[in-house]
Amino acid sequence: MHKRWLSYITLAVAPVCLASVNSEHFAERLDLASLPDGRLSAAFTFRFLGPLKHFHRGRTSPDGHTRLYTSERIPRQLASIIRAFGVRELHLSLTAGSWDQSAWGLPHSPHAFEGSRLSRSPIAHASASGAELWAWLDSSDANQWTGLTNSLAGLFCASLNRLDLTRTTSPVLQYGRESSDAVRNATLYHGMLPLEHPCTENLTPFISLLPCKAQAGLASLLNPHRLFDADYQNLAIDILTHADEIEIVMQAKSVLNPIRLDRAKGGPGKRDWSFEHCLERELKRSCPAASESFITIVQPTSTHSLVPDGFEFVAEKLLSMSVSNVTSPLDVSMRWPQEGQFVPEQQYAPAPITVKRVLLGKGQERGQIGVDIANHLEQQIDVGYNEELPWWMTIYLHTLKIEQLTLDLQSVQLLPGPASHALRYVPANVRGRPALIEAKLTLPARSVVRVLLNYEAAYLRYTEYPSDAHRGFDIPAAAVFLPEGPMTGSRRIYSSSALLSMPTPDFSMPYNVIILTSTCIALFFGSIFNLMTRELFAIQRVGISTKAE
């Protein structure tokens, strides 16, 4: 009797489960682009799509009690975090190195092409050096943010749990929502860790979230020995909620150096690249769980040869090939037969917008901090500026200066008030939240806008210094938000992080005092102990006394 009821329940639930599985999709793509200095930009993108109702409302079984979550493609680890903390939107990135804006231009955005809903262009943004996390949560309770950071820290083996309230802000003018979810009452939390760089222990759980892991599909090309030998590495996860579906985008970006690899093997230093040469792996088979799998290559302007021949133009200067049915090892390569040793250009075309960190002053007590935002376009544009400074940097808002300089940073002109359309300042709390500065700026054509603030370094308690206190304290990167239109690629760029020397006590003094004191005590104690325990006896020299007689 029980077996009969069990079979009835199975038949009733099976169509619902199959419908849920069929409504989920997984797609992957690899975007390759040769950079002007001979390096190779490789961006792995893995996209999940699924019904949103499974994550926030769930479904009940026929008995009315048990919730059924039949996700087969969407990572269940992320699904449980989304449900537990009411995540409406989340962006996490771990970055090592900085994007060279002068040589590589703006961070490359994977191109969209027709005929593919899942392989449309993913979120196009740069990443700050270190770890950056921001999320929109249903609840304004700070414990939800604490639980989220701790869960992500455990999932990705990263120190994201250090993103407590002393490193968290809530920007208003920038970091707008990128999803189309109609929920308006969500709360934004944002935090940065400049020293949290990706490594193998982060890549392993990253790959474990994929349906085929590293056994098949494009993820099988993720060789940690090569990825973390690159000049720039980035791991990112973006979670977006739309009207009726949830979207999870996982990205692994790397800037490889085939010229250095060629020289290491005794070559002249060519920029020729291939999977085997740069990643030491080949694509052996496709991932059966992926409904779409593409490799796209930005066609260079110089004469080259591309192997294999299955690539087709899907956009201007964009080649694409489907790798959904790969059964034998596939090695994609690009060569420049007419080139020997690659000689990069002496000067590269500048990116439309560049940003650099500025740190002025002398001594360790006070100085000036800000950014230089350069506009190389022939027209003025409006940008957003976001700065988060730790509480131990006391900021004086009345010293804020916005200056206009020429591109060679020679002549200086103080900009009038309208250069800043909006300004928001949230002061820091001592041993609490960091200071937040948000502004909307107008960049004149072919000029540099410098934003400067005076600061004063605080005196810390000796227990608040890190173990490497004399190295300095890291300041997070500043973010600049670009408008759509004249730029191509990223909509957000970052300056480099800064290292600030703080007034630091001589931590070697206690060590020196202990050593000196211990030495003196040892010498004193040893001498006194020797005198107190030694017995003195009068020795009669028999031979001398006999001769005298």
From TrEMBL:
GO terms for cellular component: GPI-anchor transamidase complex. InterPro entries: PIG-T. Pfam families: Gpi16 (PF04113). GO terms for biological process: attachment of GPI anchor to protein. Residues 1-19 form the signal peptide. The chain crosses the membrane at residues 509-531. Keywords: Membrane, Signal, Transmembrane, Transmembrane helix. This is GPI transamidase component PIG-T. The lineage of its organism: Eukaryota, Fungi, Dikarya, Basidiomycota, Pucciniomycotina.
